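Blinded run. Sample ID left blank on purpose so nobody reads anything into the name before looking at the predicted structure. Input follows.
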Amino acid sequence: MNKTALITGAARRVGKAMALHLASQGWNIAIHYNSSDAEARLLVDELISVYPKQQFELFKADLNLPEEVELLIPQVIQKMKSLDLLINNASVFEPAKLGGTTTGFLDRQMNVNFKAPFILTRNFAQLLKSGVIVNFVDTRIVTNQSNFAAYSISKKALWELTKMAALEFGPDIRVNAIAPGLTLPPEEKGEDYLLKLAEKIAMKSPGGLDPILKSLDYILNNDYLTGQLLFCDGGENLGIKI
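Blinded prediction complete.
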């Protein structure tokens, strides 16, 4: 019987890459999306055409609205009958320093990046009793730069949640985190944007998607790994080269 994964923000970018990657390994995929309706439908059509014996379903939810988040895990279980893996990938990444962060802006960052994974993690543990959870944090969690203050705080909180959940829900549920660095350029930027930033990190190059997919495989295949953080950032967390 194929295992089932729920990936938040699965219609585009890193989420889509993980959906395609896991599908190639025989997983059924619950594809969560919010505003990326067209991309999500194209993805599920592609997956069904390539892997007709596996199950791929769409689940729409606004992660900024806790009442919609509360329904997501029960809806997946009802439609797909089981759930073995939760990947909290979706996030909002918006700049603002502490002094320029409005209360509404802070709420949105915390709701999507922290509160939604909290609810999904809790519901996964309550309803499923066993499985694996992977949270996407950010290499920024080890710094105190405030240009993305609310975003960084939300990801720091998600890392703390990862450790608490790993301790409370083990041994039946393993919870780990991945911290990407220079993976994909922002949609309004080109690859040269990442190349310039990469000049100051240890590996001096962007990572792309492959290191993230390899890290996901490592977490899934190492059944003694829990409460851990894998930095997929080319050493960015170590500091800046001078």
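Unblinding after everyone has recorded impressions. The longest strand covers residues 173-180.
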